[in-house]
Every structure is written in structure tokens, then in C-alpha cells.
């Protein structure tokens, strides 16, 4: 059955969401968004945020938490997650689409989201599908609290999404002109199998992204995937911000 997506409502939902955060990211209790905060974020008045869950036959298998901001018309995407067994079936995409629609209805026009610069799946979803532009690179954005970080410094892209822009046409990635920055095709597998190599990717790409995004006036606008000879290579596409 297709999971249904709806706003979180009630203590059981809040507790399930906090538990799911721990399951998806390996966050400890101190770093997960607590049930009491999730309750506040779902208030109808004042509107402080947006909390969505994806439920498969009553079990919460995905979540999306958006925070309001002091800048009018601006929101911040705090968490988007889907349990491993439910990934790559379009649920992440559906959660984003539902969040966009709900935020638009609340008068939000711009969303900022941070995401792992070496995670090809997220780059595809956020840049290619949703049309975001990563405009800055922030080293050590979060402390290494979650198990999933496995010793990797937690650098993040800061990406901007214009909710009133027309839906993105797929960028002509095959013809994308340099600069292209290669990232791992599967960061999670690399971290699990060869953490030293994952760390080397971080340390090698960090100064490149910092130079292009923070100093060079470029933005990350897409992910280009090249497949052949049984291997996939992924490249972040950059263009003038
Ligand atoms: C990011 C996340 C929410 C996506 O959820 P999902 O349900 O798998 O997303 P979808 O199935 O809608 O879309 C996945 C897309 O990535 C693509 N994809 C999967 N693996 C990929 C890879 N290694 N490289 C490039 N693209 C990849 C899929 O083909 C699909 O794109 P398509 O619909 O155009 O074919 C989920 O992977 C997750 O919870 N990850 C861990 C937490 C996280 O990183 N959250 C985001 C930042 S906070």
C-alpha cells in the first residue's frame, strides 16, 4: 500500500517521529527534535513550523520537519528522512511536494535547506528534482553527534529554493560545462566500507567547494551521473550564482 502523508497530530505521532529520527540518523535523545518541540511546531496559531509524517499501515516510515523563520516568507527545512526499507520508491519526493504545497499555502516563498555535499541521492533530489541552488559551503556545520557521521566532519551545502519559480526543467547536465566536481556515487557504502577514503573525499572536495561557492560566486545547481562499464560517477554541476 502507498504510505499516506499527513501532519503530525498527538503524542503518539510526536513520540514516533522522535524515535524515527533516532532510527534514520542515529541521533541520540539530546539531538533529536523532542516530542514537546514537535508539538509546538505543529501549532495552528502561531504557525511556528510544519511537521509531516508518512504512514504505512499506521507505522511512521518518513518525516519532514520545517521551521518558520523571523524573515517574512522564509522557512528552513530542518529534517527530511525515510526509513531505508522505504527509500527509492518516491516517498522523499512526495514529502517534499507536500511540504512545498503546505508552505506555499502559508505564504512562504523561499526555503533554505542544508545537505551533505557528498550525498549523490540528496543532490539529485534537491538540485535536479526540486531546482535548489546551493549558494554556500559550510565546514563543520554540525558537530559529529550522530552515528551515521562515522567520523566524517559534518560539512553542509546551504541551498535556496524559490517556491514560486516554475518547476525545474532538467538542466542539460550531459552538456554541463566545467567546473564539475566529482563526488562519491554512494557515500553511505563508502563510509561503511572504507571510512578513510570517505574522509579523503571530504578533505579533497572541501577546499574546491569553498573556493567556487564561497569565494568564486558560483552555485551548485545539479548532479550529473555518468554510468558505463559497470560503474557510476557523479558530478556536481556549478554555474554562476
Ligand atoms: C534523502 C531521502 C529522504 C530520500 O528519500 P527517498 O524516499 O529515497 O526519495 P525518492 O525515492 O523520492 O527519490 C530518490 C531519488 O534519488 C535517486 N537516487 C538514489 N540513489 C542515488 C544515487 N546514489 N545517486 C543519485 N541519485 C540517486 C533515485 O533514483 C530517485 O530519483 P528519481 O525519482 O529521479 O529516480 C532518504 O534517502 C533518506 O532518508 N536519507 C537519509 C537522511 C537524509 O540524508 N536526509 C536528507 C537530508 S536531512
TrEMBL record:
Q: Which residues form the signal peptide?
A: none
* Gene source species: Desulfarculus baarsii (strain ATCC 33931 / DSM 2075 / LMG 7858 / VKM B-1802 / 2st14)
Where does the N-acetyltransferase domain start and stop, copy by copy?
A: 3-153
CDD domains, per the entry: NAT_SF (cd04301)
PROSITE patterns for the chain: GNAT (PS51186)
Question: Which branch of life, at top level?
Answer: Bacteria
Which InterPro entries does this chain map to?
A: Acyl_CoA_acyltransferase, GNAT_dom, GNAT_N_AcTrfase_prd
Q: Which GO terms describe its molecular function?
A: acyltransferase activity, transferring groups other than amino-acyl groups
Q: Which residues form a coiled coil?
A: none
Q: What is this protein called?
A: GCN5-related N-acetyltransferase
Amino acid at each position: 500500500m502507498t504510505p499516506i502523508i499527513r501532519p503530525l497530530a498527538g503524542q503518539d505521532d510526536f513520540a514516533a517521529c522522535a524515535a524515527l529520527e533516532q532510527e534514520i540518523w542515529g541521533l541520540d535523545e539530546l539531538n533529536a527534535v523532542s516530542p514537546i518541540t514537535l508539538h509546538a511546531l505543529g501549532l495552528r496559531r502561531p504557525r511556528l513550523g510544519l511537521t509531516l509524517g508518512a504512514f504505512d499501515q499506521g507505522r511512521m516510515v518518513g518525516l519532514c520537519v520545517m521551521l518558520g523563520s523571523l524573515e517574512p516568507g522564509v522557512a528552513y527545512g530542518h529534517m527530511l528522512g525515510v526509513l531505508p526499507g522505504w527509500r527509492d520508491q518516491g516517498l522523499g519526493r512526495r514529502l517534499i511536494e507536500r511540504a512545498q504545497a503546505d508552505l506555499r499555502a502559508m505564504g512562504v516563498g523561499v526555503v533554505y535547506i542544508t545537505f551533505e555535499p557528498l550525498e549523490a541521492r540528496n543532490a539529485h533530489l534537491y538540485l535536479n528534482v526540486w531546482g535548489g541552488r546551493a549558494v554556500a559551503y559550510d565546514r563543520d556545520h554540525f558537530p559529529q553527534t550522530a552515528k551515521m557521521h562515522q567520523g566524517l566532519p559534518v560539512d553542509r551545502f546551504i541551498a535556496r529554493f524559490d517556491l514560486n519559480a516554475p518547476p525545474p526543467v532538467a538542466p542539460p547536465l550531459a552538456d554541463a560545462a566545467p567546473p564539475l566536481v566529482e563526488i562519491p556515487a554512494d557515500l553511505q557504502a563508502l563510509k561503511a566500507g572504507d571510512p578513510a577514503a570517505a574522509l579523503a573525499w571530504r578533505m579533497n572536495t572541501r577546499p574546491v567547494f569553498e573556493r567556487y561557492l564561497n569565494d568564486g560566486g558560483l552555485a551548485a545547481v545539479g548532479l550529473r551521473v555518468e554510468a558505463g562499464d559497470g560503474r557510476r560517477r557523479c558530478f556536481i554541476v556549478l554555474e554562476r550564482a
